């Protein structure tokens, strides 16, 4: 008996759980589908250009059979699989998904070595990942890992931003860092490159858990620096 199609809920809240339905947010020029997989509740994201149907997938974290089926059903024009950083829980499904889809992979060079497949493309600060008529800007955020990256989607017409931050920024604080030096590096990068550039209506899509906005988190920046995490 054939498997049932994966469910995607168009009532987007940003709260997804492993084993539950994916959620789809439609914005001017694009759709964003959020799906949680694996025992560590890893978020994966499919960003699709509305004009061409071309798409990019972020963090093949776990459950490769599920992800492969999900991408076959909802991303027939998938062009690239991006890994936001080197931590194992974000790439457990990468080798199998890349092999089954035949799609090239990408990551920052400082985080490339631990990955199970050598990235076909190395993403640097300021690069643009073209997805049909969309362009995702690459921002390097060093501290959680040396080569963590965020991807910035800008809405067509409105200019509102959507940022996929991996494990560098969450509701309530920064991602985990190993020592004070790495915390300072991550704090300074997030403060300057995200809060210093983008408006309060910018949506943050983290590697685990619920979404947030820069406006919701901005009042707490001084608190984060003071506590050191």
Detailed description of the structure:
The chain has 229 residues and is an alpha/beta fold. The chain is 20% helix and 32% strand. Strands 1-2-3-4-5-6-7-8 form an 8-stranded mixed beta sheet, covered by helices on one side. The protein has a 6-stranded mixed beta sheet with strand order 9-10-11-12-15-16. It has a two-stranded antiparallel sheet with strand order 13-14. Strand 15 and strand 16 (212-213) form a beta hairpin. Helix 1 (64-74) packs parallel to helix 2 (94-101).
The helix tally amounts to 5
Shape: globular
For the report, how would you describe the main beta sheet?
Answer: 8 strands, mixed
Radius of gyration from the alpha-carbon trace, in angstroms:
16 Å
Helix content: 10-25%
How are helices and strands ordered from N to C? EEEEEHEHEEEEEEEEHEEHH
Strand content is 25-35%
Structure classification: alpha/beta
Strand segment count:
16
Average residue-wise pLDDT: 97
Distance from N terminus to C terminus (CA atoms, Å) equals 50 Å
The low-confidence parts are none
| Spatial strand arrangement across the major sheet | 1-2-3-4-5-6-7-8
In short:
This protein is an alpha/beta fold and 229 residues long. Helix content is 20%, strand content 32%.
């Amino acid at each position: 008996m054939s498997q049932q199609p994966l469910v995607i809920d168009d009532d987007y809240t940003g709260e997804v759980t492993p084993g539950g339905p994916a959620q789809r947010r439609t914005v001017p020029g694009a759709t964003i589908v959020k799906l949680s997989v694996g025992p560590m509740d890893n978020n994966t994201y499919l960003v699709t250009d509305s004009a061409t149907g071309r798409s990019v997938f972020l963090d093949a974290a776990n459950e490769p059979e599920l992800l492969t089926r999900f991408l076959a059903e909802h991303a027939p024009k998938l062009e690239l699989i991006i890994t936001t950083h080197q931590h194992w829980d974000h790439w457990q499904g990468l080798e199998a998904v890349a092999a089954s889809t035949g799609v090239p992979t990408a990551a920052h060079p400082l985080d490339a070595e631990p990955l199970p497949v050598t990235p076909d493309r190395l993403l640097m600060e300021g690069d643009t990942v073209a997805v049909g008529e969309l362009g995702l800007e690459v921002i390097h955020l060093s501290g959680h890992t040396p080569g963590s990256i965020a991807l910035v989607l800008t809405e067509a017409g409105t200019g509102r931003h959507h940022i996929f931050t991996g494990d560098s920024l969450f509701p309530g604080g920064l991602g985990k860092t190993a020592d004070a030096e790495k915390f300072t590096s991550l704090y300074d990068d997030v403060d300057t490159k995200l809060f210093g550039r983008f408006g309060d209506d910018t949506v943050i899509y983290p590697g685990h858990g619920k979404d947030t906005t820069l406006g919701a988190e901005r009042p707490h920046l001084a608190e984060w620096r003071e506590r050191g995490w």
